[in-house]
Structures are given as C-alpha cells and as structure tokens.
Amino acid sequence: MNNLICSEEKRRIEVREHTELCGLDYVEIEPDQRTLTVYFLGKLPITLNESNVIIEGGQRIQDIQVIKVRVNRSEMAGLDDTLKIVTNKAGDFSTYTLRMVVRDEYGKYQPHPQFDPHYDRVAFSFKADCPSDLDCQQETVCPPQQREEPVINYLAKDYASFRQLILDRLALVMPDWRERHVPDIGIAMVELLAYVGDHLSYYQDAVATEAYLDTARQRVSVRRHARLVDYVLHEGCNARTWVCVETDSDLTLNDDPDNPHDIYFLTTLEEIAPTIQKDELTRNTIGSYEVFEPRTKGKIQLYH
Fold first, then answer.
1. Over the chain, what HEC string results?
2. What pTM did the predictor assign?
3. Which CATH fold topology does 2-124 show?
4. pLDDT at 234 over 70
C-alpha cells in the first residue's frame, strides 16, 4: 500500500511538471450547483471548449450537458490553472465523473491525447456542500485502553451469595476493614444490600418465568396470556363429589330460612355419633378426616 501511494504521488509530480501533458486534480461546486471549477495539475498547455468536457453518471438526474467553459490561467508560478464549467442543470446526490475527451472521425468520444490517462477524469458530487448527518471522523486505529475491571460472580442470585460477594469485594478495596460482627454498621449495610439484591433477583427470575405460557406458575399470568388469544380463563372451582346420606326417616336440613346453619359432611369417624355439633367435633375428635361442604346454603331435603 505504501509503494502504491508513493507511486501515485510521484506520477502527480511528473504530470504537474510536464510541459505537454496535463491532468485533472479536483472539482469544486458553486452554491448554485450548476457552476463547477476544475483544478488542473499545473499549467494547461492547450485550449479547451465545450466539446472537450462531458459529465457522466447520476441516478435520478442524468444526461447533464456542458453549456459553457472558460479557462482561467494563473500568472503566478505556484498556482494551478482552472476551468470554469456551467451545466444545464444540477445533479443528484450520486457520484458523477467529469472526463476530458475529443471526438474521433466517427463522432465517438475518445480520451483526450494531451491528458495523462490516469488523470483525464475526476469523480465529484453536485451535493458536496449540502448539509449531511454523516460523521466524517476517522476511525481510531489504536485499540482502546484496557481498564482493570473487578471480577464479578454473575452466578450470585440469593442473599447468601450476594453477602459473600460484597464482603469479598470490600476485602479488596478496604483491606483494613475486617469487622464481621452482626451489630457493626458496615455488616448491617452489607446485609441490607444483599437483601435488596436477593429481592431484585427474585423479580428478575419471576419476570422471565411468568413471561411465557409454558413456564408461568401463577394463575394470573396464565389468564393474561390466554387473554392475548381472546380466551377467557374460568375462575375455577373446588373439587366436587357425590355424598350418599342414609336416614331412617325423611329429614329436612336448614328448614328455617331466617336462621340458616352451616352444614358439613365428614368422612366416617369412629366413636362419634352420625350427627354432631361443631363444638363436640372440636372437643372429642382425634385423627384426620375430610370435610365436604354443600354447594348451596339453602334447605336440604333428605328422604328415607
């Protein structure tokens, strides 16, 4: 790459010092975007007209014609000659190419013989002076400075691991502090931070878990997922079963609607009567049993 750059610069110097050849250096665009100033490499030894300049390229706007040219020859030895060009219209934001040409006997454009083949054309844009949001800052070649970062245990998720993590970090940044008694204010702050970390860690896990239907553990989360597909989840109900009650005569339970009683059916227990009061059950029953509650609080009719 360095050899290529050196060769390019050497060729520019040779073209600039040549007395019969010339070349194009760069193009400047006037505010009206129709007037171009072309800078040559050194002095221009020939005369040019509109037929020697063509502009190619463009995406939305093409076929730009040169309607006027004027050569400005500098009398000072250190300044290059320029060519003022006026076009019939302005171009778009794409890249155009300005070429120096001559017409052959068939009317086709050929490279100008008195221009160096490497510098007989130059690329430019009509919108070079337009405002742009692009950042032209050069990319930094040097890598960023490496900073010393603390070693963090990302597997710490509960109170105990957070507490140990904080104590280990304090042992590095505050080696003189070695207090480990619970009443110490430093230990209290460490445990407070560990508690907050444990609380936040739980919420992080809960959010990730409840965010998907397959892993949701709370009923309210499942209901919200179901609502997204227009499915209304039922509130649910307790387990139900049929209870068979044997009586020796017809019997009506809760026959007084103004003073209803709570009636429950229990599994068979030894050493108690078939019908008992709540106080008697609490006072005398030993062992486990299952309780069944009627669906309604109204009157219950039993038949023999």
1. CHHHHHHHHHHHHHHHHCCCCECEEEEEECCCCCEEEEEECCCCCCCCCHHHEEEEECCCCCCCCEEEEEEECCCCCCCCCEEEEEECCCCCCCCEEEEEEEECCCCCEEECCCECCCCCEEEECCCCCCCCCCCCCCCCCCCCCCCCCCCCCCCCCCHHHHHHHHHHHHHHHCCCCCCCCCCCHHHHHHHHHHHHHHHHHHHHHHHHHHCCCCCCCCHHHHHHHHHHCCCCCCCCCCCCCCCCCCCCCCEEECCCCCCCCCCCEECCCCCCCCCCCHHHHHHHCCCCCCEECCCCCCCEEECC
2. 0.42
3. Immunoglobulin-like (2.60.40)
4. yes
